[in-house]
Amino acid sequence: MRHRDRRPGLPAEVAAAGLIDEYRVRVHPVLAGGGEIRSRNRWPVCLASCHGIVRLGGERVRLRGREPEDWEAFHAFDEDSEAVRNGWRLEPPRSVARAKKETTEDAEKEWDLDEFSLVIVTKQDDAPVGSINTHTVDRLHGTFSYGIAVGTPHHRKGYASEAIVLVLRYMFYERRFQKAEAWVYSSNEASLALHRRLGFVEEGRRRRSRYANGRYDDEVLFGMTVEEYTERYA
Ligand SMILES: CC(C)(COP(=O)(O)OP(=O)(O)OC[C@H]1O[C@@H](n2cnc3c(N)ncnc32)[C@H](O)[C@@H]1OP(=O)(O)O)[C@@H](O)C(=O)NCCC(=O)NCCS
Known about the structure:
CATH topology of the largest domain: Aminopeptidase
CATH class of the largest domain: Alpha Beta
Number of strands: 10
CATH superfamily of the largest domain: Gcn5-related N-acetyltransferase (GNAT)
Number of domains: 2
Radius of gyration: 20 Å
Distance between the termini: 38 Å
Bound molecules: coenzyme A
């Protein structure tokens, strides 16, 4: 039975090596000490890397979890109606108190391994410039969607491109998904250009499927398979 343990989050190497009891007992001390344990046949099992936190960083940006201190940056982004409308939908203005509360709640939320929201920060000074989240995750078919927003002062610096490539790499190569999808409003020229430039395939259009700014808009579906990603970015 020990060898067949399939509980979520249990590293396959640990299960295969029959180290489940040892893993359960020693995982915290080992992680704290950054060490490793060895199986009875001396096969090394590095717990810090097989059950650790993936580092999502590129040349320009790094992706990290939300912190309560991020409230100010996101409150400012939320006041940029044009950008918010392009990303999702407009809401009535929020108080500072509510912005702080929501950011703290987000920071403390337990995220799913596949459905999460990350802050995009610059590599240079760790300043929050936007966010990226996965959603509509379908584990049976191996598909997922994502949303992204970069604050207007930080546009055209390659931040969105890099953040998307990083999230796709994690979802394709660490979580074994096979296709990424993105729905883009047909009036959002920046995002249409971004997805074409990244190599996404335009797969379809839902006509008159959203209302904003006094008019109806279509939604354009973009997709990229793991093979297309590998060919371009691996
Ligand atoms: C769309 C958005 C995420 C792009 O972010 P960004 O960090 O500026 O994008 P990048 O710098 O990575 O742009 C990569 C390429 O996309 C294209 N692009 C991006 N913005 C563009 C614009 N305003 N006009 C034309 N092309 C644009 C260009 O080809 C650009 O490369 P270049 O700057 O070398 O010409 C950003 O404009 C945004 O957050 N908008 C508001 C929210 C939103 O629309 N989210 C997407 C919902 S689907």
